[in-house]
Amino acid sequence: MNAVTSVAPAKFDVNEIRKDFPILSRLVHNKPLVFLDSAASAQKPRAVIDAMSFAFENEYANVHRGAYYLSETATTNYEAAREKVRTFINASSVNEIVFTKGATDAINLVAASYGRLALKPGDEIMLTALEHHSNIVPWQLIRDQTGAEIKVVPINADGSVSVDAFARTIGPKTKIVAVAHVSNVLGTILPIEAIVEMAHKVGAKVLVDGCQGIVHEKVDVQALGCDFYAFSGHKLYGPNGIGVLWARAELLDAMPPYQGGGEMISTVTFKQSTWAEAPAKFEAGTPPIVPALGLGAAIDYLNRIDRVGAIAHEHDLLHYAMQQLPTVPGLKLVGTAQNKASVQSFTMDGAHPHDLATVLDRSGVAVRAGHHCAQPLMEALGVTATARASFGIYNTRAEVDALVAALHKARAVLL
Question: pTM to 2 decimals?
Answer without folding.
Answer: 0.95
